[in-house]
Amino acid sequence: MSGRLFSQTLRWQRVRLAIVVLAGIGWGMLIPVFYNAFSTVMRDLANSGAFPRELMSLGSGSLFSLPGAITLGLQHPLAIGMLGIFAVGASATAISGERARGTLEVLLARPISRLALYLSILAALLMTVLVVFAAILGGMIGGSAIQGLTDELDLGQLPLVILNGFGLWAAFTTFGLAASVTFDRPGPAIGLSLAYLAVNYFLEILGSLWLDAAWTQDYSLFHHFNPGAILSGEAVMVDLGIVFVAALVPVVYALVVFPRRDLAAPA
Amino acid sequence: MQDMPSTSAISTQGLTKHYGSVQALSGLTLDVRQGEIFGFLGPNGSGKSTTIRTLLGFLHATSGEASVLGMDVARESVEIRRLTGYLPGGIALYDSLTGEQVLDYLVDMQGREPYRRGELCQRLELSASVLKRKVRDYSRGMRQKIGVVQALQHDPELAILDEPTEGLDPLMQQAFYRILDDLRREGRTVFFSSHVLSEVERLCDRVAIIRAGHLMAIHDVTELLARRRRRVTLRWRGVAPDPTSLPGLEDAEVDGNRMIGTLSGEVAGFVRAIASPNLEDLTIEPASLEEAFLEYYAAEETPA
């Protein structure tokens, strides 16, 4: 691994990262506020039958409990967008973008193997994803503390939430980077990575809204990340295994494919 | 030309590269000696860049072998690149960085000190204020200068330069030629591709000519220049002599006291033969490598 490439990759992302971290903290802090303000109303609405109950627990989350609200906040499109900037956008363009611009061959003219290049970029991207995830979660814990709600959370389980969340987003990051080493242009790499994320999200939402299709959730990586359950002391260790295997498979693929690819001259 | 050590800086044996059904490189066998400036000449799309990219490990050869500085390109590519400086054709740089940041980044990645950067920047007129500007504000020529500096700043044992003078103005081209002259004096090896014949003639010890992926020939430049034909015009006082009596003169046309023809091979015998008090004027047009090149392609239909 190249420390210089690792730090330079982080440097490319620093402005974006700072903005997203601030937004993530802000979003995270709002979730306990929403919970505090609306959970009773939402519960009454759900019980009144005005809305299908499924709508109140999208993606395994709900506003009926703080852990449920945290799940909802972490699986909300806003949070997915913030994390997706790095897990999909930055990873899918990391190598294909350098290749399309022509800078990859300048970089690979240095004494660095493709393996080291890949691992350095992967490590930097995983760090950005971890930082964003930690910022959102940190905002939620901070917001809960401000609202005086921390006794509703089993904070001892936080490392497990971070590990599970990191595993989920690492899976999207490694997929994006695998797409990035596969294509010569960023467009197809971004498209494929975005489609992977969207399909996973769709399966999770479909299964939670339509009980007959509940089985589809098992095929969604989002379903294997349930911070609400972990923070309620109901962690399912197999979920951890699933997200980390999903993160590892694209790494193995990239390590096999990337060193063997021909890097023809950029167009 | 100075004596060259016999060790190969670059050696290829039957190097072949196919892209599907397209044959980009076909059985390329060549040796570049250490300490020489070697020109790799051919029209666009002839396989020059494919050769270079294969030598640097960007492409995997379909068949054949290649070594650089005694190391196998397939197995020891990283070590080869440690000792090599590379200027890609039409270099792309990081637009969001300044010229100085680009050079710092790339030399850091190289893992060597930028021993030559100061001297190179001075010779290519890259001032400190220019280096502080973002690359996105650079002209094509400025980018090319940065490309030259990044390739040579760490004083590589071997420089591989793909169309190095593209985008440089004539003054900077001359400065670049002098840099290469110095590298040659210091015993560095330079392998550069070009389709600009005049710079190959000016710089190279030897030249390989490649066309459609096939190696057509490898020549000493001096030998190639000596072989080529020259256009000769002579004017005599009185009647011109019989052109068949002049060694090496071909296609001669006599018009009164004026004779025009083509001279090939050694000049000395021809000059001795025409030496006469009646010779009023003599013009031997300086033949360019371009003419030799075109003659070569006209004559050679099959690869070497």
Write the layout of secondary structure elements.
The complex is a heterodimer of chains A (267) and B (304).
Chain A: H1 3-48, H2 66-75, H3 77-101, H4 103-108, H5 114-146, H6 158-182, H7 186-209, H8 227-231, H9 237-257
Chain B: E1 8-19, E2 22-33, E3 37-41, H1 48-55, E4 63-68, E5 71-72, H2 77-82, E6 84-87, H3 99-110, H4 117-123, H5 128-131, H6 140-152, E7 158-162, H7 170-185, E8 189-194, H8 197-203, E9 206-211, E10 214-220, H9 221-227, E11 230-236, E12 249-255, E13 258-263, H10 268-274, E14 279-284, H11 289-299
Parallel strand pairs in B: 3-8, 3-9, 6-7, 7-8
Antiparallel strand pairs in B: 1-2, 1-4, 4-5, 9-10, 11-13, 11-14, 12-13
Protein described:
The complex is a heterodimer of chains A (267) and B (304). Chain A has one domain (3-260). Chain A contains nine helices and no strands. Chain A is mainly α and 267 residues long. Chain A has helices at 3-48, 66-75, 77-101, 103-108, 114-146, 158-182, 186-209, 227-231, 237-257. Chain B is an alpha/beta fold and 304 residues long. Chain B folds into two domains: 8-220, Rossmann fold (3-Layer(aba) Sandwich); 229-286. In chain B, 32% of the residues lie in helices and 30% in strands. Chain B is built from eleven helices and 14 strands. Chain B has helices at 48-55, 77-82, 99-110, 117-123, 128-131, 140-152, 170-185, 197-203, 221-227, 268-274, 289-299, and strands at 8-19, 22-33, 37-41, 63-68, 71-72, 84-87, 158-162, 189-194, 206-211, 214-220, 230-236, 249-255, 258-263, 279-284. Chain B has a six-stranded mixed β-sheet, sandwiched between helices. The chains are: A mainly alpha (267), B alpha/beta (304). Chain A binds chain B through residues 2, 4-5, 8, 12, 101-103, 105-113, 260, 262-266, and chain B through 19, 49, 53, 56-60, 77-79, 81-82, 84-86, 88-94, 96, 105-106, 108-111, 150.
